[in-house]
Amino acid sequence: MTTEIKFGTDGWRAIIAEDFTFPNVRACAQSVALYLKEAKLAERGLVIGYDTRFASEDFAAAVAEVVAANGIHVYLCDSPISTPVVSHALLQRKAGGAVIITASHNPARWSGFKYKPEYASSASPEVIARIEARLPAILAAAVPRLPLSEAQERGLVELVSPRQSYMEHVGELVDLEALRAAGLRVVIDSMYGAAAGWLPQLLAGGATQVQELHGERNPLFPGLQPEPITRHLGALIDAVRATGADVGLATDGDGDRVGVIDERGEFVNQHQVFALLAYYLLEVRGQRGPMVKSLTSTSMIYRLGELYNVPVYETPVGFKFLGPKMIAENALIAGEESGGFAFRHHPPDRDGILSSLYFLDLMARRGRRPSELLAELFAKVGPHYYDRIDIPLASEQKAGLMARLSDARPQRLAGLRVTEKDTTDGFRFHLEGGGWLLLRFSGTEPLLRIYTEVQDQSLVQKLLAAGKELVGLP
User: Fold this and answer.
1) In the sheet that 258-261 helps form, which strands lie side by side, from edge to edge?
2) Alpha carbon distance 53, 51 (integer Å)
3) Does residue 397 surpass a pLDDT of 90?
4) Which of 97-106, 140-149, 419-428 has the lowest mean pLDDT?
5) Between the CA atoms of 206, 173, 322 and 470, what dihedral angle is there, to the nearest 10 degrees?
6) Is residue 1 part of a domain?
7) Which of 81, 177, 247, 341 is the most exposed place for a label (fewest CB within 10 A)?
8) CATH number of residue 395's parent domain
């Protein structure tokens, strides 16, 4: 049976050897090659990168062979590389697009195929629709291939190392010498991912001390899933507490997200990190510009926009929406609930490495540790508390739950009056006092996600429970 390949919030992901197979990856590569030709981008070439998962370099080579067979020049990364570094290489080389073999934060059995257009963010729905539309016909036909060695001999595939140019660029955005001299004690969990070694290298040579966990390549991701949220960061939490570190930082499987552990070993959630990074740019560095947030992101961004007199724009979930809006508005920062943040003067795409450096720079410039910075932020915008639960679904459940949510008209949730129902991307219930509850089906996994943010911490779990009641789940 032919696989149906569907691109979600950020690329196509599937279980290795079940649906993520060489024939299916080659089909995706062929569709990208045809898209590049149709869009008049083929002459600019294609960058191909890959993460540390099982056989990622082999899948990347398969993509290179197909694209080269179409007569398109390929810049193939010579080692596992994080997604933001590939995005930077795409812009730096003025290529027509990029492919990254990665499943980001998914469990070890998964791999994925991300496509980045020439503007170096997640591909827009329009671009993805054009790539998807050709796939059924491509899957039913023979895909051209040019053996990698022959493609290299003919100059169609060029092995590249984008590390140095990325490091030089990052050094223009943040004062690395000052960070090295700051004397911070940092523990980094690279989660066996593609960003391993980057932060230790960037921060080496000064008074700042860096300890790295899970910096080696291990495609099994033993003991963890490479997603930098509380339940996967036990080793980092233990290390911060044991060493008395000032902060713990974690990057996900492809290095485009960041997680933060404070000096007490407590998780600083993604909303708080987003608001702190925005506060850093606005208050500490004195920069100004619009901010862009996904609808699942914190309302603290709206409050910061009011305080610093800058506009805030909201989009559906995913950098396929955030990136283009960021470009259109020349935004200062863009962020989403998953811990992915992008910045002006940098590719309009998530970057866990630069986010980490900016967070450390905030600490160094303010002379404060994360819990103290959070107190400083809350003094400006008021306290905000958030949590999310993910509920696995069988394929047959989704339609019924969708219908139930479409019909839902609750007057109150956890005792709070519902002021509005928003169906832009999922089902969001605005609550009195400025809080919200959102139920949304994941675009990359068979999950129902339930999110909430309120200013009363005691209501967080009650609202999540109310969300489950709305769909009739225990």
Assistant:
1) 209-213, 185-189, 247-251, 258-261, 267-268
2) 6
3) no
4) 419-428
5) 30
6) no
7) 177
8) 3.30.310.50
Residue found under tokens 């149709």: 38
The residues that bridge with 386 in the sheet, in sequence order, are: 453
My answer on whether 206 and 296 are in the same domain is: yes
Q: Say yes or no: 253 and 305 in one domain.
A: yes
Q: What is the reported pLDDT for 1?
A: 44
Determine the average pLDDT of the residues in 149-153.
98
> Residue 274: what pLDDT?
97
CB atoms within 10 A of CB 446: 13
Share of the chain above pLDDT 90, in %: 88
Q: What pTM did the predictor assign?
A: 0.92
Tens digits of per-residue pLDDT, 329-379? 999 999 998 899 999 999 999 999 999 999 999 999 999 999 999 999 999
Is 3 contained in some domain? no
52 and 119 housed in the same domain: yes
**CA–CA distance, 277 with 259 (Å, rounded to integer):** 13
Q: Are residues 151 and 81 in the same domain?
A: yes
Single-letter code of the amino acid located at 12 = W
Residue 383: Cβ-neighbour burial (10 angstroms; 0-12, 13-18, 19+): middle
Residue 3 pLDDT more than 90? no
Residue 313 within any structural domain of the chain? yes
Q: Is residue 154 located within the same domain as residue 198?
A: no
Q: How far apart are CA 161 and CA 77, in angstroms?
A: 6
Q: What is the pLDDT of residue 2?
A: 57
| CB-CB contact of 333 with 343 (8 Å) | yes
Q: Are residues 28 and 156 in the same domain?
A: yes
The number of distinct structural domains making up the chain is 3
Q: What is the dihedral of CA 288, 289, 294, 299, to 10 degrees?
A: 40
Tell me if 7 is assigned to some domain.
Answer: no
Q: Which of 118, 142, 162 is where one domain is finished?
A: 162
- Residue 306's contacts (CB-CB under 8 Å, 6 or more residues apart) are none
